[in-house]
Amino acid sequence: MRNSLADVVSAALRVLEAQGLEGCSMRRVAAELGVQPSALYHHVPDKQTLLALMADRIVAGAGAAEGDPRRFCVALRDAMLAVRDGADVVATAAAFRLGASEIEERLAALVGADGARTLLLYTFGHAQSTQTHLQAAALGALAAFAAGPPAGGPAVAAAAGQTATPAAVAEAELEASFGRGLDIILAGLR
């Protein structure tokens, strides 16, 4: 059976989830599909194009929040955080102007080109920072998690409906921090 472009993108996302961005090579994607790496080039000319298609797939659901730039950015961040290294993939593709331009265009219709770029850079950066923090915490690489929750942390977690584990506290605070930053940017745009 011959693979389609959608099959190639799906395989790349499976490799991304299993290996992370650094381990997501054309060779591994080909192995996931059971084909030779050269077979991938019938669908994509290079890894950068595949990265752009992966980014587009990752953020595809963010469009459901049309009309409200705050909800749009929250949905975009959630979509990136739902995929291992998703924020890195989307931010890289956007930085190289390889993909996700439709997202920028839709946001620009709401807040103008400069506002859209500012919101996207903030959303990408915050999502990358959050993803790095959560991955490091999951690996036990953050000493603060061994010491227990920070002062006032359980209240933040409880407000978010989560248990007061250090990881839940951190995740709730990161989400709250993102919302506060969005509010500051949107107030400035108004």
TrEMBL record:
<keyword id="KW-0805">Transcription regulation</keyword>
<dbReference type="GO" id="GO:0045892">
    <property type="term" value="P:negative regulation of DNA-templated transcription"/>
</dbReference>
<protein>
    <submittedName>
        <fullName>TetR family transcriptional regulator</fullName>
    </submittedName>
</protein>
<dbReference type="InterPro" id="IPR009057">
    <property type="entry name" value="Homeodomain-like_sf"/>
</dbReference>
<dbReference type="GO" id="GO:0046677">
    <property type="term" value="P:response to antibiotic"/>
</dbReference>
<dbReference type="Pfam" id="PF00440">
    <property type="entry name" value="TetR_N"/>
</dbReference>
<dbReference type="InterPro" id="IPR003012">
    <property type="entry name" value="Tet_transcr_reg_TetR"/>
</dbReference>
<dbReference type="InterPro" id="IPR001647">
    <property type="entry name" value="HTH_TetR"/>
</dbReference>
<feature type="DNA-binding region" description="H-T-H motif">
    <location>
        <begin position="25"/>
        <end position="44"/>
    </location>
</feature>
<feature type="domain" description="HTH tetR-type">
    <location>
        <begin position="2"/>
        <end position="62"/>
    </location>
</feature>
<dbReference type="InterPro" id="IPR036271">
    <property type="entry name" value="Tet_transcr_reg_TetR-rel_C_sf"/>
</dbReference>
<keyword id="KW-0804">Transcription</keyword>
<keyword id="KW-0238">DNA-binding</keyword>
<dbReference type="GO" id="GO:0000976">
    <property type="term" value="F:transcription cis-regulatory region binding"/>
</dbReference>
<dbReference type="GO" id="GO:0003700">
    <property type="term" value="F:DNA-binding transcription factor activity"/>
</dbReference>
<dbReference type="InterPro" id="IPR050109">
    <property type="entry name" value="HTH-type_TetR-like_transc_reg"/>
</dbReference>
